[in-house]
Design goal:
Length: 358
Amino acid sequence: MKKIAVVGAGISGLTMANYLEKHKIDYHIYERRKMKDQAGHGFLIPKEGMDYLYQIIDPEILLKHGNFLKKYTQYSRTGKTLAEKELDHVFAISRHSLIHLLAQNISPEKITYEETIIPDNQQTGKLKLSDGTDIDADIAVISDGSKSRIRRDLFKGEKMSVVRESEVVNIIQNKEIADSVGNNFIKFHHEEGGLTFGILKLSGDTILWYSQFDNEKYMINACTAENLKKYMLEVFEDWHPLIPSIIQKSDYKNVHLWCVYELEKLNPFYKDNIVFIGDAAHPLIPFTSQGVTSALKDSFILTKYLSEEENTEKAFKKYEAERKPEIETHINNGRILLEQFLRPLRQQSENILPISYK
Ligand SMILES: Cc1cc2nc3c(=O)[nH]c(=O)nc-3n(C[C@H](O)[C@H](O)[C@H](O)COP(=O)(O)OP(=O)(O)OC[C@H]3O[C@@H](n4cnc5c(N)ncnc54)[C@H](O)[C@@H]3O)c2cc1C
C-alpha cells in the first residue's frame, strides 16, 4: 500500500488522517503551527457534515463540545424581528474544540508540528521539508488552506481575489449571555446592507459573536485587539443595546479580523501525485457554512477511492469528478449570499438562512 504525506493539520488534514487511519492506510501529517496553537473562529455545521463527523468522532464526546442551534432569527439593527427559521440539526462548535477532537485519534509519531512544507524550486511538483530533504511519500494530500502555497506553485496562472466581506470574530466566556442566547442563533442587520452582528452559543458558558462587514464601506486599518474594540464600539454604538453591551463586556484575547479570499476559477484538484482537499482545493466563503462539511466529504471520498483503486490517477480522477460539481454549487450559492448581504434589507430576498444547501 502506498504511503501518504498530508500537508496541513487543519480540519481537512486531520479529517483525512482520521479516514486514512480507519482504512489502515499509511500516512504522516506535517503541520506548520505549534501543537498547542489552535486559535480560530467557530463553525456552523449542517446535518450532513455532522453525519460525516459521527463516523470519526464518538458522537457522545462531540456533542459535549458544541451546541445544536434550534432557531435562526434575523433582526433589524434596532431589534425588530424580520424573519425566523427553524434549524434542522445545525451544530455550533469552536475550531479549537474540533481540531482538538480530530487530533485525538492521531498517534503522536504520525504528526510533525512546526514543519512547513515547501515546493521544490528546482522541480515543479516536488515537495520538500523545511531542511531541504524530500518528503518520504508516494502521494501528497495538500490541505494547507485557502491561500495554499503549494497550489499557487503548481497552478501559476490562478487568480485569487479578496472577497468584499470581512469578519471580526470573537469567542468569549460569559454565562449570562450564553444562558440568554440558549439555542438561538441571532443576527442583527443594518437596513442599508453590508453590516451584520451575529451571536450564538458554542457550549456551556462560551459564546461566539461576529460582525460581517462590507470592506469597501467599512475600513479597519489597524488590527490590534484594542483598535478592533474601539472600531466595533463606534460602528455599533446606536444598534440594539445588547450589541454595544456585548462588545463592551468582551475579553479580546481571542478576537480576530478575517479577510476572505476566493479563486476566480477552480484549478484541477490534482496533478501527478499531488491532490488537494478542503480550502486548498476550493476556498469557500464563510456565508456558505460549508467549509467543514466539504472538507469532510473530500477526505471521505478521496480515501474511499484510494483504498478501492490500485491506480492513483484513477482514484484522483474519480474524486475530482464526484466533488467538483457540488463545490461549484456552493461557490455559486456563496456569491448569491454575498450579493444579498451587500444590498439594502428592502431589496433582499426572503431566503434568509446563511447556509448554502445543494
Ligand atoms: C470567518 C470565517 C468563518 C467561517 N465559518 C464557517 C462555518 O460557520 N462553517 C464552516 O463549515 N466553515 C466556515 N468557514 C470555513 C472554514 O473555516 C474552512 O473551510 C475550513 O477551516 C478549511 O479547513 P482546511 O483544513 O482546509 O484549511 P485551514 O483551516 O486553513 O488549515 C490549513 C492548515 O495548514 C497549515 N499549513 C499551511 N501551510 C502549510 C505548509 N506549507 N506546511 C505545513 N502546514 C501548513 C496551517 O497552519 C493550517 O493548520 C469559515 C471561515 C472563516 C474565515
